[in-house]
Design a protein that fits this description.
Blueprint lengths: L1 H18 L14 E3 L2 E3 L1 E6 L2 E6 L4 E8 L5 E3 L7 H5 L9 E3 L5 E2 L3 E4 L2 E4 L9 E2 L12 E5 L3 E8 L10 E9 L4 E9 L4 E2 L3 E3 L1 E2 L13 E4 L1 E5 L12 E2 L11 E2 L9 H5 L4 E6 L7 E8 L4 E7 L3 E5 L22 E6 L14 E2 L5 E11 L1
Antiparallel strand pairs: 1-2, 3-4, 4-5, 5-6, 7-17, 8-11, 9-10, 12-13, 13-14, 14-15, 15-29, 16-28, 18-27, 19-22, 19-24, 20-21, 20-23, 23-26, 24-25, 25-29, 26-27
């Protein structure tokens, strides 16, 4: 009888341990309390379905995204910092989780021309080009918090005329929402009082295994695009649009990210891996599937939907293990997937690209959806 009782207790304990799940461990909001330029900064938590987001209004940054794997174990699947100071004074990557703009990606020669007038911006990329809005883009400002609910956060920011050299008082509104369908949705609007160019995007660095859990080379990717925009050695679009067929840029069938990333292909050599805009094969004007990413070890599956013509995919080519995340683990070479829905880069200097011009009286709109599931 004693042996039987011992067996039952052992079995119950084993089942109990097996049923224990890894649960979200949210960041301490006090580490994000502060004041910058007289404006209050904080950390906000929104949740719905199986998704929990933590966002700071400094740079409108997505600090944490908690999702379960196929066994119900949670992990924080975006790279980030554990405090406000880590974002204000980054020791490495500047754009972690941020909203970037007003013109995302690179602007060739740090200038563009509107109606015959040339505007010049800080050359914060290789001392020649402008990257993600200049020295003080949307990632380095405090956004006004307009509304907070259990599942939504609405922010706004006035990018003033002449700020970083950009023309027009650009009034931006952005809502982050999580849904019962396990979606993280971003809706943007913007208006201007002068003709200008606008190309805003979001910059979460995903690792579907969890932050600091190795590279993303085993992540499997699909991209709905038959063309891409080639770049030079500085990441600047050449003005061409090239077919993906027969190249390592062809993700119309699923491939592991690491399968061809070191191929003898000049475009991969130019930027040490993937850091390009794919020209999406769109059917209409609404939300359409742009890409999917699957991490087979834990079963997390990410779908990206957008109403924009382009998707910039960056594979973390400039991490080297000297920068560290929220949990103290290093950001390794190629340890993230960044999926930026946007207009084509440097469209302001390439008239043949889909236009990103915004005029007074018009409204810029964009919607991006990151949808999470497991399989």
């Amino acid at each position: 009888m004693r042996k039987f009782l011992f067996f039952v207790m052992t079995l119950v304990l084993a089942v109990s341990c097996k049923d224990q799940k890894t649960l979200p461990s949210l960041l301490d909001t006090s580490a994000f309390k502060g004041e910058i330029d007289g404006q209050e900064v904080s950390l906000y938590t929104i949740k719905a379905g199986d998704i929990i987001l933590q966002v700071t209004n400094y740079g409108a940054r997505v600090v944490s995204v908690w999702t379960p794997d196929r066994d119900g174990n949670y992990a924080d699947i975006v790279l980030g910092r554990k405090s406000l100071d880590g974002y204000m004074n980054p020791q490495g990557e500047r754009f972690l989780g941020a909203c970037v703009g007003p013109v995302a990606n690179r602007i060739k020669d740090a200038s563009f021309t509107v109606d015959g007038e040339t505007y010049r911006f800080p050359a914060n990329d290789n001392d020649r080009n402008t990257l993600h809005g200049g020295l003080k883009g949307l990632d380095h400002v405090v956004w006004d918090v307009r509304e907070v609910t259990d599942s939504t956060l609405t922010l706004s920011y006035l990018h003033a005329d002449g700020q970083e050299g950009f023309p027009g008082n650009l009034l931006i509104s952005m809502t982050y929402a999580v849904t019962s369908a396990n979606e993280f949705r971003i809706d943007y609007t913007a208006t201007t009082d002068k003709p200008t160019y606008v190309n805003i995007t979001n910059h979460p660095f995903f690792n579907l295994k969890g932050e600091g859990e190795g590279t993303v080379l085993g992540h499997e990717m699909y991209i709905n695009a038959s063309r891409f925009v080639p770049v030079d050695a500085n990441g600047i679009p050449t003005g061409e649009v090239a077919p993906v067929v027969g190249t390592p840029m062809d993700f119309r069938e699923v491939h592991a990210i690491g399968e061809r990333i070191d191929a003898d292909f000049d475009q991969l050599k130019n930027v040490r891996g993937y850091d390009h805009n794919w020209c999406l094969d769109r059917q209409g004007d609404g939300l359409e599937l742009a890409c999917t990413v699957y991490e087979p070890e834990h079963g997390r599956f990410l779908e990206v939907l957008t109403d924009q013509p382009g998707l910039q995919f960056y594979s973390g080519n400039f991490f080297d293990g000297t920068d560290f995340g929220k949990n103290g683990k290093p950001f390794l070479f190629r340890s993230c997937v960044v999926l930026e829905t946007q207009g084509w880069p440097d469209a302001c200097n390439n008239p043949s690209f889909p236009s990103t011009r915004l005029d007074p009286g018009d409204t810029y709109t964009q919607t991006c959806v990151y949808r999470f599931s497991t399989k």
